[in-house]
Amino acid sequence: MSSQKIIFTGPVGAGKSTAIKAVSDIMHIYTEELASDMTQRQKKTTTVALDYGVIQLSDGEKIHLYGTPGQERFNFMWDILTQGGVGLVLLINAAAPDPFGDMRFFITEFKKFIQTSQLVIGISQLDVNPSRSIDQFNQEYQNIAQQQGLKYPVPMFTIDAREKSDINLLIESLLYSLDISLAK
Amino acid sequence: MSIDSIDQIETLSVSMHCLSERMLQVLTFFFQQKYGLRFRVKTSLNSDILIIDIDSALGMRTLEELISSEAANNCILLSLNQARLDNYTQKNTIKISKPFRHEQLVSALEQAREKLLNPEAKQQVKQSAGQLKPPSSPPVLTQSITPTVEKLVRDSLLKASRKVEEAETHTHNEIQPETEASPAKAEKLIDAHVQKAKSNAAQAAKKMGRLDNNALVGSGKDLSSNNKDTQDERIRYKPEDYLQGTIEMAIQKSELDNSVITIALRDGNIWVCLASDTISTNISLTSLRSLCLIPLSKKIALFRDNKQNIKTHRCQNNESVAMFLWRITVWTARGRVSSNINLEQTIQLRYWPNLTRYLPLPHSTKIAALWANHKTSLLQSAETLQIAQRYVFSFYSANHALGLIVCDDKQLLAADEKKTQLNSKPIRSILGKLIKRLQNPNDRTH
Prior knowledge:
The structure holds two protein chains of two kinds. Chain A is of the alpha/beta class. Chain A has helices at residues 16-23, 76-82, 99-109, 111-116, 134-148, 164-178; strands at 3-9, 32-34, 45-47, 51-56, 62-67, 85-93, 118-124, 156-159. In chain A, the strands form two sheets. Chain A has a six-stranded mixed β-sheet with strand order 4-5-1-6-7-8, with helices on both faces. Chain A is globular. In chain A, 49% of the residues are buried. Chain B has a five-stranded parallel β-sheet with strand order 2-1-3-4-5, sandwiched between helices. Chain B has a five-stranded antiparallel β-sheet with strand order 10-7-8-9-11. Chain B is globular and about 85 Å long. At the A-B interface, helix 5, strand 8 and helix 6 of A face helix 12 and helix 16 of B.
C-alpha cells in the first residue's frame, strides 16, 4: 500500500485551506487562529500549523494533501513538508496588493522542490478583479522561470477555491505534466 | 395531394423575408434540393408565395406593407408566439408555429399552391398554429435512467410472470403438477431481462455521451497514413467564411481603433470591446451555436459603436474575449483545422489555456501537457496519446485562435525537451488511479 503527497502553498488568503477542503475525502484537519498581525488586514483567521486532507484510492492507497501556512515566519516548515512530494499547487490571490510579488516570492522559496517535481498555479479572485488578466500572470511566470531556470509554460488556471472541479483540473494537469504516459 | 404523384408540374416562385440567416439557408437548401421542380426561390416580394417570419424586427412591418398592397393573400407566417399568430386575422393566410417540421411546411405550401392554381376550389385555409403545432421534444436520455428502467422492467416482468404462471397453472395443471422450480425460473428470467435492460440503458447513456462529444468535435474519422492527401479536405475549414472569422476581424478592428465594434446579425448583435476585454451579445447561446455551423452567405457589417449602446440592450451573454472566441472556434471547428495549417509542422504551447473557464473539450489536459513539454506535430499528438485526431484538431483550432501556439522553428529550437517521465512504476500506478478518480464525473462536483 503506497501513498504520495501534493503540497498546496501560497500567500495568506489565496484559498489553500478551502481548496484542500474541496477535494479531501476526510474531515479536513487544520488549525485556524484569530489573526493578530498584518494578516488581520487580509482575513480574520489564518492557518498557523498546516492544512491536511486525503484523497482515498482503491486498495487503500492514498494521496495526502498538505497546505503550508501562508505566513513567512512559518517557512521553516516548508522544507519538511515538501520532502517526498510529487508536485506543488501554488495559489495566488489576484486581488492582493502585489500578486506578482507573491508569485515571485513563493516560486523562489520553493525553487528546489519545483525543479524536482511539477508546479501548477491557480489564480483566485481573478473573476472579481478585472484589472488583471491570466495572460499577465502567464507572462510574469515566464519572466520568473527564465530568470530562475525553471521550465515553462506550466498549467495556470483561474480558480474558485470552493469549486471542486477547478481544483480537480489543477491536480489532473499537474499529473499529466509530471508524466505524459499517464495520459495513455 | 401528394407531391410525388403530380405529373404536370407548374413551378411557383417562393420568396422568404425576415428569416434568420440560418433558417434562410436551411429553407433555400430545402427548396433547391427537394422541391426545385415545384418551387423556385426568388428574393423579391413579387412572388407567388411569401414566407415571412413575424418575430423579426422587420417582420410585422413587412407584413403590414403587404396587406396594404394586397399581396398578403399568399403568405405563410412563421412565429414562435402563438398569440401573435392568433392575433393576425387576415383571411387565407397560413400560419405555422416555430419550430416546425418540414412536413408542416410542405403541407402549407401545398395549400397555397392549390389555392393559386385552382382559385375556384374553396380551400379550408384555416391551418392555424393550432393545426400545425410544433412537434413535442423527444425525451432526453440520461444516465439516471438506469434505476428507473430497472424498476419498470422488474415490475412489468413480475406482473407478466405472475400471469404466465397463472395461465400455465390453468393449462398444465392436470398434465404437469406445479413444481417449486417455476418461481425460481421466473426470477432468473426477470434477472436476465433486468440485466439486458440495464445494459441497454448503459449503452444508451454511453451513446448520449458520444453524441455530446460529437457536437463539440464532430465525428470525422482519422486520416489514414496511406491517402492523407485525398482525405485532407474533410478536416479543413476556412474560419473567414464563418462567424469565427468575423469575430476575429472585429477583435482586430477593436484593437486598432480602440473602440467598441458591433457585429450586426439578423438574430441580434455582438459587441466586441477589447479595451474592457469583453464580448457581449443579445443572441442566445443556442442561436450562436447554430450560427457557427453554417458559412455566412454575405459579408457581415461591422461598425464602430458607443460603449453606452451596449447597456441599452439586454445582453444574454457577457464573456472575456478569450472565453468567447474559444467557444465560437470550438463550435465552428468541430474536429477540423484551418485550411492553411500543416498537420506535420512541429508545434508547442506558448501558455496553457485557461481550461477552468473555457468551454471544456475532451482530452484537453492531456494534449496541453504534451504540447507544453514536448515538440510534436498534430498527427503525432493523436498517435502519442492514442486518441482520435479530431480531439487534437479541435483543441488546436481553439488554441490557435487565441494565439497560444508556437510553430516558429527558431523558438522551438530554443525550448529544451523537458523530462516528463516518472522513473518509479509504483508512483505511476498510484497517480494513474488518482487521475481516474479525478475524471470520474461523480467526483467533479460536490
